[in-house]
TrEMBL record:
Species the sequence originates in: Venenivibrio stagnispumantis
Keywords (A to Z) from UniProt: Magnesium, Metal-binding, Nucleotide-binding, Nucleotidyltransferase, RNA-binding, Transferase, tRNA processing, tRNA-binding
Start and end residues of each tRNA nucleotidyltransferase/poly(A) polymerase RNA and SrmB- binding domain: 212-266
Cofactor(s) the protein needs: Mg(2+)
InterPro entries (alphabetical): NT_sf (IPR043519), PolA_pol_head_dom (IPR002646), PolyA_RNA-bd (IPR032828), tRNA_CCA-adding_enzyme (IPR050124)
Protein name per the record: Poly(A) polymerase
GO terms, biological process: tRNA processing
MF (Gene Ontology): metal ion binding; nucleotide binding; nucleotidyltransferase activity; tRNA binding
Residues of the Poly A polymerase head domain: 48-186
Amino acid sequence: MLSFQGFLQKIFNKEKLPEFKIRYIHGLLFYNSYFDSVYKALGKDTICFIVGGWVRDRLINRKITNKVDIDFIVTTDPFDIVKKLKSLIGGDIFQFEKEKKVATILFSEGDIKYRFDFSYLEIPDIKDFEEREKIIVEKLYEDLLSRDFTINAMAVNFDDTVSLGVSQTLLFDPSNGYEDLNKELIKPVSIENIKKDPVRILRAYRLAQELNFNIDKDFEKWIEKNASILQNSPQERIREEILKIFENDGTAETLKKLIENKIIKSSLKDKNIFEDMKELENLLKNCEN
């Protein structure tokens, strides 16, 4: 595996790269005891980043629950990595697609259930070291900028989370997610990303509920005007997001917002579920009176 720190210093001195927003954070903040096994499974030629919810949650020191989901981005075949990891720690592995895009390993320790997802970062076969590493960082940023919310669009270099001598790591943050995290704000990376996957609207309210954050006001105004884009979204994914809302505190308040903003009405085609939600709406109104 290769370190980015020296390389980034070189390229920053040599030329200006497009909007590389980087912060330094203590690397061991992101450590998990299974990372030592992940390190062995990656191999020396793999560059790996940790992305998404694990980075977000560790930055706010969120309590770790009995469900641990960690997302990795890697530059070699993810399925080869999870196969090696399985030989080290056991568990079950599977792949989402026939192509080498995403591979997952599921395993348990006591009552704690782990899910590690490895996504492939496709890069051209370039021999020049500096050019190759520059492209990797650019591809990483493309990936981060395609995600749902700014607080989920941050990444750290995996190597720095397992090296005892490292005091800080690079936080890759192209959409100012760190600032929004400190503001306790759910803000989309872009409205286009929401349009591509409207179920992210429901996820915004669910995340706000889970983290006790607020939804960006401009985003919420946009939702009020555009909730109808949920109509063509898969009902299975919509139900899944709604069910997750019932798993956390603040369910009534979150459902009230979804009903007030006509999100429930726009998203549910199943008549029985919609009728249940109408009944729930009446119950919420009665509770207010």
